[in-house]
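User: Could you go from structure to sequence for me? I need the amino acid at each position, not a summary. Structure tokens:
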């Protein structure tokens, strides 16, 4: 569904200055996949999305999206993809249903077909009771659902969503995700989205692609990335700071802060009993012990030494 090779984008600034926003991306996304695209501010996510959706020509490299080349056949790409950007897509002049009908007409549908498609989407996204409202009177979550409906009017095979749940309250976020998952189940739509919320990418996406500094630095299922790149953690507290320092030294690579020791291991649940026995034999008194699975932020930290949340990640 997406096949990109060596995709780059350089922006020219004043006085021969340039910004290499995307520095050579290879990416293959198969039909029906749900991919979350993550990275810190300025990593190159929007630039990549804009190139894949034909809003911006690449400086070099190639990309085929939904069977069409982005440079040679941008109209072909646009006819097969939907794009839900961060800003509201609907205007204020029409009622909700009319917005959808007008969108269908813009795609060349006859009036009857556009009206039928609008009603289908109102049902799919639970917007039917709001059909006669103006977009400006909708809540944030309802407005997001309308944006998604507008992106789906022409039955795209592939939908790009730029931060679909950002700015919504937890209940509306959960609802948006329900709709995204329903869409995939009902129509097999391929979904490529950026999200601000690492835990959403972790639990909802079957594949996570992380970009940093214009390059893809990790690509896999969330579990693969966490197992391969971050590992589990054991967190212990000891009676004294001296004991914590010794425990961290014994583990080789652990860190101590006050009386808390943090160790990275492949399988924390299996390693914990042996770890406690070894510390006990060394005369170190452990007062509490807990195991934790890594997060996607731990993956990024391992890869780059920085936290994705440090600079308010907006994937
Ligand atoms: N039109 C432009 N002109 C010059 N530089 C640009 C332009 N658009 C983006 N950039 C630069 O390219 C780099 C990548 O930007 P991009 O918007 O793709 O990042 P992002 O990962 O989407 O960031 P954010 O999460 O903050 O939206 C940044 O350094 C940005 O300043």
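Assistant: Here is the amino acid at each position, in order:
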């Amino acid at each position: 569904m997406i096949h990109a090779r060596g995709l780059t984008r350089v922006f020219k600034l004043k006085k021969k200055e340039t910004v290499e926003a995307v520095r050579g991306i290879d990416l293959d996304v198969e039909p029906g996949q749900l991919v979350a695209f993550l990275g810190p501010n300025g990593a190159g996510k929007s630039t990549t999305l804009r190139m894949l959706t034909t809003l911006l020509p690449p400086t070099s490299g190639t990309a085929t999206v939904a069977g069409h080349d982005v440079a040679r056949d941008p109209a072909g790409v646009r006819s097969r993809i939907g794009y839900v950007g961060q800003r509201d897509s609907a205007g204020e002049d029409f009622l909700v249903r009319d917005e959808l009908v007008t969108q269908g007409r813009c795609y060349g549908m006859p009036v009857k077909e556009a009206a039928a498609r609008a009603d289908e989407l109102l049902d799919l996204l639970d917007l039917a009771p709001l059909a006669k409202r103006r977009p400006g009177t909708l809540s944030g979550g309802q407005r997001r659902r309308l944006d998604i409906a507008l992106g789906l009017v022409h039955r795209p095979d592939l939908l790009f969503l730029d931060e679909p749940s950002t700015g919504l309250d937890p209940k509306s976020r959960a609802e948006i995700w329900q709709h995204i998952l329903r869409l995939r189940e009902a129509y097999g739509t391929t979904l490529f989205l950026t999200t601000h919320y690492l835990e959403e990418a972790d639990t909802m996406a079957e594949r996570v692609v992380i970009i940093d500094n214009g390059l893809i630095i990790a690509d896999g299922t969330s579990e693969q990335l966490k197992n391969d790149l971050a590992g589990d953690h054991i967190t212990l507290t000891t009676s004294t700071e001296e004991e914590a320092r010794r425990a961290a030294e014994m583990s080789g690579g652990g860190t101590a802060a006050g009386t808390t020791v943090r160790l990275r291991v492949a399988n924390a649940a299996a390693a914990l009993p042996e770890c406690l026995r070894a510390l006990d034999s060394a005369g170190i008194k452990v007062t509490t012990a807990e195991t934790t699975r890594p997060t996607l932020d731990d993956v990024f930290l391992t890869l780059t030494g920085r936290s994705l949340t440090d600079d308010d990640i907006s994937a």
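One structural detail worth keeping in mind: The radius of gyration is 24 Å.
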